[in-house]
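Figure 2 data, in text form.
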Amino acid sequence: YARYESVIRLHLVPRIGRTKLQLLKPSQVQALYTKMEADGVGARTRELCHVVLRKALQQAVQWGYLAVNPCDRVERPRAPKRTMNVLTPEQAQRLLAEARGHRLYALVVVLLTCGLRWGEAAALQWEDIDLKRGTLTVRRSVTEVKGKHVIGEPKTARGRRQIAMPKIALQALREHRKQMLAEGHPGPWVFCDQDGGLLRLPNFRRRV
């Protein structure tokens, strides 16, 4: 919602907001995308503008305000697919060695070995961890919107899953549990800040 609101407020309304709905032409929409590119607006933002605008105009078609959707007759902006940078085994070993001894070492291990997204790992609670069976269950995810945490379910049904942890993750979590109890943080969050609250990704990137 926050992302959609921002592209509407920052890009769509200032550029075409005064155009009457019935007078909006495909050529004007195409010119909008061309001008945004010339102004240095990123490909992903232009693509998102198209998604939001097309959806809004499709609603107008359904309500009978428009006969056709102008966005269906323009060339859709497309963001290039990102290339995934994967650590080599040697880089992974170095990462673990460098992180060893940090209070969030177990988080680094879980992210590296269990295939969790940041939001899934940050939202883990101790009830999701079975140290006896060696399993981890993903039940929720956390995102940060305008500086506030929003907790919800994974995006898809497949996102709710149980993971058999490798020995290195299991051992790291056992040690981490002892450390958190010693700090006075019995839960519910597995990985927390110094006050026992949810971690913030910007802080983790900057400090860790």
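Caption note: Strands lie at 129-130, 135-138, 141-145, 148-152, 161-164.
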